[in-house]
């Protein structure tokens, strides 16, 4: 967790900046989500899919996708006065797994984006955060043409631990993305508090 203590008066209003990861399969809308909610011009490291990459990157079911995020997306959003979130979109392809351990250092929690047409693509991200006890919410990006599933169905299909929130969203919509982030901050806050209480009891 990154926190700034720029308040010279030492009041209790020091701005808080929390680190959030945005994960999920290739083409699920991570770059779109970070771009939609970010107040700063999102930093992207998109590259045209090279011919070589096209042989490895599975673009089945991903419409008109010609770029891929090779390292990560970065953005910032102020949730309320004094509380900012720094968003790190993790690379979607398995060959970039090695970056995750670095990225997840100090993260409050994660958003796992899911597309119900290719739900299995988010299994690795779900496994990763479950194993490391990093709080996460699953955000179902409701693509046009995809059959609408309820949050309950998605939760069962992913075999999530009870309590892990599932939120339906539109990654292109700022308010929708912000709602996902607020759910995550609330949920992660509860999880961290519960762990803290456990550790002292
Ligand atoms: N129809 C629709 N298209 C979307 C949505 N989110 C993303 N896309 C498109 O899906 C493609 C993949 O999105 P992108 O954000 O690059 O995926 P990433 O690989 O997870 O970063 C892009 O062409 C987006 O414009 C959505 O909610 N609805
Ligand atoms: Mg991307």
Low-confidence stretches: 3-10
Give the proportion of residues in helices.
25-40%
What is the molecular shape?
A: globular
Question: What percent of residues are in strands?
Answer: 15-25%
Q: Could you give the distance between the termini?
A: 24 Å
Q: Average the pLDDT over all residues and give the rounded result.
A: 84
Which structural category do the helix and sheet elements fall into?
A: alpha/beta
* CATH architecture heading: 3-Layer(aba) Sandwich
**CATH fold call:** Rossmann fold
How many structural domains does the protein architecture include? 1
* Name of the CATH superfamily: P-loop containing nucleotide triphosphate hydrolases
Number of strands: 9
Order of helices and strands, N to C? EEHEHEEEHEHEHEH
Largest sheet: 7 strands, mixed
Number of helices: 6
Bound molecules: guanosine-5'-diphosphate, magnesium ion
Radius of gyration: 17 Å
CATH class: Alpha Beta
């Amino acid at each position: 967790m990154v926190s700034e203590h720029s308040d010279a008066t030492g009041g209790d209003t020091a701005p808080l900046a929390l680190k959030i990861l945005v994960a999920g399969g290739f083409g699920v809308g991570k770059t779109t989500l970070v771009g939609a909610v970010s107040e700063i011009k999102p930093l992207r490291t998109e590259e045209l899919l090279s011919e070589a990459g096209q042989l490895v990157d599975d673009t089945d079911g991903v419409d008109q996708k010609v770029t891929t995020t090779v390292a990560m997306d970065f953005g910032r959003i102020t949730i309320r006065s004094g509380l900012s979130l720094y968003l790190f979109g993790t690379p979607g392809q398995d060959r970039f797994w090695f970056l995750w351990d670095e990225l997840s250092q100090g993260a409050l929690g994660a958003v796992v984006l899911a597309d119900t047409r290719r739900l299995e693509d988010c299994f690795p991200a779900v496994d990763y955060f479950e194993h490391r006890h990093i709080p996460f919410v699953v955000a179902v990006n409701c693509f046009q043409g995809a059959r609408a599933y309820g949050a309950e169905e998605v939760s069962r299909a992913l075999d999530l631990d009870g309590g892990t929130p599932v939120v339906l969203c539109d990654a292109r919509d700022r308010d929708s993305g912000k709602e996902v982030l607020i759910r995550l901050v609330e949920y992660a806050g509860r999880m961290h508090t519960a762990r803290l209480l456990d550790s002292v009891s």
